[in-house]
Amino acid sequence: MKLFISALIVLFSSSFAMAADVTVDMLNKLGKEKMVYSEKIVRVDVGDTVFWKAKDKGHNVEFIKKGGAPEGVKKFKSKLSKDTKYKFEVPGIYAYQCTPHKNMGMIGFVIVGNNLDNLEAIKKIKFRGKSKKVAEKLMKEIAAKH
Ligand SMILES: [Cu+2]
């Protein structure tokens, strides 16, 4: 019986480790916040996929062009109002924005493989408007948790 239980635990925890794909909602409103991703910082392993759901219309996901992704990663921009997904193969930090709301604080980060090697490049990104403050706060969180 004891063996059975420990086998169960192993099964259970390994299936959790594998099911690391994450879903983020694109929203017009979340509590007091307007135009937001439901999760602003997501941590995944190399090979995991992040799904963004178009719960509300008028949003998308775009990797920030200058320094928003680890070197060698191709640009990524999803269609407005459509669900989208991205499989993360290169470790590092990804900074992304909603194209229409990039100055309204609608930004997010994905950290792949617990790798912060491109943090300096991410810090150099010029966020504008409301996104400036949001980015500062999120980047502090990212740097602190490492
Ligand atoms: Cu948006």
SSE topology:
Elements: H1 2-18, E1 22-30, E2 33-37, E3 41-44, E4 49-53, E5 62-63, E6 84-87, E7 92-97, E8 107-112, H2 119-123, H3 130-144
Parallel strand pairs: 1-4, 3-8
Antiparallel strand pairs: 1-2, 4-6, 5-7, 7-8
The structure holds copper (II) ion.
Task: Give an overview in words.
The chain is α/β, with parallel strands linked by helices and 146 residues long. It has a single domain (21-144), classed as Cupredoxins -  blue copper proteins (Immunoglobulin-like, Sandwich). Helices cover 25% and strands 28% of the residues. It is built from three helices and eight strands; from the N terminus they run H-E-E-E-E-E-E-E-E-H-H. The chain has helices at residues 2-18, 119-123, 130-144, and strands spanning 22-30, 33-37, 41-44, 49-53, 62-63, 84-87, 92-97, 107-112. A four-stranded mixed β-sheet has the order 2-1-4-6, with no helix packed on it. The longest helix has 17 residues, at 2-18. It is globular. 27% of the residues are buried. Copper (II) ion (CU) binds next to loops.
